[in-house]
From TrEMBL:
<dbReference type="InterPro" id="IPR011032">
    <property type="entry name" value="GroES-like_sf"/>
</dbReference>
<comment type="similarity">
    <text>Belongs to the zinc-containing alcohol dehydrogenase family. Quinone oxidoreductase subfamily.</text>
</comment>
<keyword id="KW-0560">Oxidoreductase</keyword>
<dbReference type="InterPro" id="IPR036291">
    <property type="entry name" value="NAD(P)-bd_dom_sf"/>
</dbReference>
<dbReference type="GO" id="GO:0005739">
    <property type="term" value="C:mitochondrion"/>
</dbReference>
<keyword id="KW-0809">Transit peptide</keyword>
<keyword id="KW-0496">Mitochondrion</keyword>
<feature type="domain" description="Enoyl reductase (ER)">
    <location>
        <begin position="59"/>
        <end position="406"/>
    </location>
</feature>
<protein>
    <recommendedName>
        <fullName>Enoyl reductase (ER) domain-containing protein</fullName>
    </recommendedName>
</protein>
<dbReference type="InterPro" id="IPR020843">
    <property type="entry name" value="ER"/>
</dbReference>
<dbReference type="Pfam" id="PF13602">
    <property type="entry name" value="ADH_zinc_N_2"/>
</dbReference>
<dbReference type="InterPro" id="IPR013154">
    <property type="entry name" value="ADH-like_N"/>
</dbReference>
<dbReference type="GO" id="GO:0016491">
    <property type="term" value="F:oxidoreductase activity"/>
</dbReference>
<dbReference type="Pfam" id="PF08240">
    <property type="entry name" value="ADH_N"/>
</dbReference>
<dbReference type="InterPro" id="IPR050700">
    <property type="entry name" value="YIM1/Zinc_Alcohol_DH_Fams"/>
</dbReference>
<dbReference type="InterPro" id="IPR037397">
    <property type="entry name" value="RTN4IP1"/>
</dbReference>
């Protein structure tokens, strides 16, 4: 495993949502991009096979299989783009989905999208690469063939970014920040959009404009970030500081200095016996952002007051996996109500579930921060594509210090 350094760089972009989910590969345009001799294949070669990691069963890391005989994913709708992937990343959701997490609900979406065969499944939610083909509805000036793009893969897609090519809606990509290298650019969007949507869509930080536009906001709010050293937490801290919020963060001892350098006003080592006491000193919090997998139950048990506790570890998909769609949905309502009744009576605040949401204006917001030098990608470690299982092993060990990046092509 190699450790990779973090860097600051710039960007400016705005992708746009294109309507009309109509066809088709036949109406797609494709090209040979100019920015890299290795990049996109000539049109004739797009019918060739590609390499990718697939799973044919849920289970452990040994289920990941590398094949160089996979069919390229096809553009099926006029708003889609085919990207040749240069770098991708491994996130906790990949490890969870490898074990079957979310399969009951996600398969419903896959069926609607005509991807109705559960396996093989390719994981990977984010990437940096080159745009090689696009549907006829993709006419945004900034999305020219050959453009180096960063992007995310919506959760229900069964063809993720752990492969040489990926197809995503145009709204999920944008030109990659020029001053970020491919590894840095692949490490921002999935966790960044999770942090952004948790704070602005779920938490309403910044008011209606904060959620519906790329305006951000949240000056003078006091936010506690649980798990400030991980992918989501490290970006959440930087987003909040860029907006003038007061930020407290927790992490374990060896990450304290790193989290401080991200800009947190106060860092608490959660392993210390007086950690809770310290957190109580700064309460109440406008928002507690749980980026440490604590879940909603922990909110009621916390000794400090808050207005909103937003956790990214909701039981939503796990309940549906366990009980099926209808009973699982009922269980979700019951869980949320019970947690909130406990929390409202004990702490006076509400508990909400936050999610990754691939919004174009969220990407625009993050782009703006990178451009202004307010958001520095954090990379935990970097692996070659052939070593994908090792990247999963690293994730499994926990105590992440930023993102695990996987390289398909040399920069
Ligand atoms: N709902 C969604 O759509 C969504 C999307 C993305 C992520 N998530 C979830 O959000 C969480 C964070 O994701 P991530 O990608 O940032 O994970 P990550 O990179 O693995 O980071 C998690 C961090 O939490 C810290 N931590 C563990 N226990 C802690 C505790 N008790 N108090 C404070 N910090 C603690 C760990 O650092 P230390 O070494 O300092 O302990 C680690 O750095 C994960 O649980 C993930 O499943 C949900």
């Amino acid at each position: 495993m190699q450790a990779a350094g973090a860097t600051v760089k710039r960007f400016g972009v705005l992708p746009r949502l294109f309507p009309a989910r109509r066809q088709f590969a036949a109406t797609a345009s494709q090209c040979e991009p100019t920015d890299s001799p290795q990049s996109p294949p000539p049109s004739a070669r797009l019918s060739m096979k590609m390499s990718g990691w697939q799973l044919h069963n849920y289970g452990g890391i040994e289920e990941l299989q590398l094949s160089d005989k996979l069919k390229l994913p096809q553009i099926r709708s006029s708003d889609e783009c085919l990207v040749r992937v240069r770098t991708t990343a491994v996130n906790p959701i990949d490890l969870a989905m490898l074990g079957g997490y979310g399969s009951k609900l996600l398969n419903q979406f896959r069926c609607q999208a005509n991807d109705d065969i559960e396996f093989p499944l390719t994981l990977g939610r984010e990437f940096c690469g080159v745009l090689v083909q696009k549907g006829m509805g993709v006419c945004h000036q900034q999305l020219q063939l050959g453009t180096r793009v960063w992007g995310v893969v919506p959760i229900p897609n069964s063809n993720g970014a752990h492969s040489e090519y990926v197809v995503v809606p145009a709204s999920c990509i944008a030109p990659a920040p020029k001053l970020l290298d491919d590894s840095e650019a692949t490490s921002v969007l999935y966790a960044g959009l999770t942090a952004w949507s948790g704070m602005y869509i779920t938490g309403g930080l910044g008011g209606p404009c904060g959620a519906a536009t790329s305006a951000g906001g949240g000056a003078n709010k006091r936010v506690l970030v649980l798990g400030g050293s991980g992918s989501v937490g490290s970006l959440a801290i930087q987003i909040l500081k860029s907006q003038g919020a007061q930020v407290l963060a927790t992490c374990s001892e060896n990450a304290v200095e790193m989290v401080r350098q991200l800009g947190a006003d106060c860092v608490v080592d959660y392993t210390k016996p007086d950690a809770m006491e310290q957190l109580c000193t700064y309460a109440p919090y406008d928002i507690v952002l749980d980026c440490a997998g604590q879940g909603g139950q922990a909110a009621a048990e916390s000794p400090y007051d808050f207005r909103q506790y937003i956790t990214f570890n909701s039981p939503l998909l796990a309940n549906i996996d366990k009980k099926g769609l209808c009973l699982g949905a009922l269980q979700n309502v019951s869980d949320l109500v019970q947690t909130n009744v406990r929390t409202a009576t004990q702490r006076g605040g509400v508990v909400k579930w936050g999610y990754f949401y691939p919004a174009a204006h969220g990407i625009e917001f993050l782009s703006g921060l990178v451009e202004r030098g307010k958001l520095i990608p954090q990379i935990d470690s970097t692996f070659d594509f052939k070593d994908m299982p090792k990247a999963f092993e690293r994730l499994k060990c926990g105590h992440m210090r930023g993102k695990i990046v996987v390289k398909l092509q040399t920069e």
